[in-house]
Amino acid sequence: MLALLNDVDPYRLQPGGAEGAPLDEYELEAGPIASLLLKNGSVQSNEVDAIWLTWFQEPLSEAIKSEAMSRFCTSLNSLNIET
Fold first, then answer.
1. Helix, coil or strand: residue 6
2. Can you tell me the distance from the alpha carbon of 29 to that of 13, in angstroms, rounded to the nearest whole number?
């Protein structure tokens, strides 16, 4: 989950990079997204947006391009999550 958020890196913080933010920069956002995925078995972009709004006062879909948001949700939903 965290690796996927780091790949998206909507604010270009370069988590884990030599001059970037800490590798766990998006950990607070990753937790609720992971919980939603575990609970429902999948996530939709509007659900991720709602979580993102909590932390950044903007939906993730506004911070990244719609194609990137679609790929992000597809990647999330393809994770092999077992409860």
1. helix
2. 14
Q: pLDDT tens digits for 6-57?
A: 999 999 999 999 999 999 999 999 999 999 999 999 999 999 999 999 999 9
The one-letter amino acid code at 66 reads S
Confirm whether pTM is higher than 0.85: yes
Q: Which of 44, 66, 48, 68 minimizes the C-alpha distance to 58?
A: 48
Task: Look up residue 28 and give its two tokens.
Answer: 């607070």
For residue 50, the 8-state DSSP code is H
Could you tell me how many residues make up the chain? 83
To the nearest 10°, report the CA torsion of 55, 43, 81, 53.
0
Give 5's Cβ-side CA count (13 Å radius).
22
